[in-house]
Amino acid sequence: MEPLISVVVPVYKTAALLPRCVDSLLAQTYPNIEIILVDDGSPDGAGALCEQYAAQHDSITAISQENRGVSAARNAGIEAACGAYLGFVDSDDWIEPEMYSSLLETLTVQKAEIAACGYAVRRYDGAGTSDNVDAATPPRLELEQALESLIHPRGIQGFLCNKLFGRGLLMKAGNDGLLRLDESIHVCEDLSFVSRCIEAAGFVAYDSRPLYIYCVRDYGGPENYNREIRESEFIALEQLIEQWSRISPALGAYIKRKYTIDAYHILRAAAGAGDRAYLPALRRRIRQYFALFLRSGSVRLALKARVLLALALPDLENRVKGIVKGGQSPGPTGHPL
Asked: Which of 76, 122, 276, 296 is most buried, taking the most CB atoms under 10 A from its CB?
């Protein structure tokens, strides 16, 4: 019998989109999959839909919990998983029919513990925007190359959903049992998880075909700004700086550049939302690795200038973009996060 693959699907406020996701899992060509739907306290009826699917399909298990966030939902799925391999799919996305059979074949052929595939970006109506496929990426990424690829724009990315993990790898990467996501981190929590897995595995097997379909939604606007959520990203980045710097100085410098760029984006978001009390702390975060950022030959001069300008006038870029888009000054505006 083929080894069991457990697929964890955290569900929150996606009742309208959940059928497309679950149906794509039920249509997988790989014959032995268990689907774990974890309703994270959805107020839109998504939980009832999970229960309906579980009643109709023996391969589906539905779990319901109070709203605790996506990491807690994924952890509940990890705890319930019985498979020799684990995958993750977000409930507003979908996957191609051959994704898991291809990932398992890639993993098996290369005798790997983690495999990744390319992904396509689509709008919610299914219309295409781009395919994130880099055919030049080799089928085997060694440790440093794989980690760098997690945050490269055309890399394998740090999210969970285009990857397949061996259960033994999660045991090896975890301190006590299977590796879990840090529920106190709300941004980059998956990047931290994947990074630990790659270090434990030593390399990643890669299939460049875009087998995962990632749906974008607009999170722009000050109404979606949350200081606590964005501040938690620095917890993850500081953990990654410690890990990557230990592996190699070049990796350490690479993740420090991301720290600076992300701090810049959060500074703009905070300024746009009117959270001026947060700006001094964000300026300090930008300055922490700013000299390294300025010296980097891989960072465009225009971005360096924008970050430098934001240190002095954090809301200027927001206002200029608002004038260009709307023809007049819009007042505070947020930055898409």
From this structure: 76
The span from the CA of 7 to the CA of 24, in Å, is: 12
Whether 188 maps to a domain, the answer reads yes
First to last CA, the chain: 44
* Amino acid symbol at 223: E
Query: Could you tell me which residues come within 8 angstroms of residue 128 by beta carbon, excluding any fewer than 6 positions away?
Result: 120, 121, 122
The whole-chain average pLDDT of the chain stands at: 90
The reported pTM is: 0.90
Residue 154 has pLDDT above 90, yes or no: no
With the CA atoms of 179, 183, 185 and 190 taken in that order, what torsion angle do they form, in degrees rounded to the nearest 10? 40
How many independent structural domains does the chain possess?
2
Of 271, 281, 273, 280, give the one whose Cα is nearest residue 316. Answer: 271
Beta pairing, strands 128-132 & 94-95 = unpaired
Judge contact between 230 and 337, C-beta under 8 A.
yes
Q: Is the pLDDT of residue 291 over 90?
A: yes
Same domain for 161 and 22? yes
> What is the reported pLDDT for 242?
97
Are 159 and 38 contained in the same domain? Answer: yes
Instruction: Mark whether 69 and 186 lie in a shared domain.
Output: yes
pLDDT in tens, 38-81: 999 999 999 999 999 999 999 999 999 999 999 999 999 999 99
Domain match, 108 and 140 both = yes
10 and 96 both lie in a single domain = yes
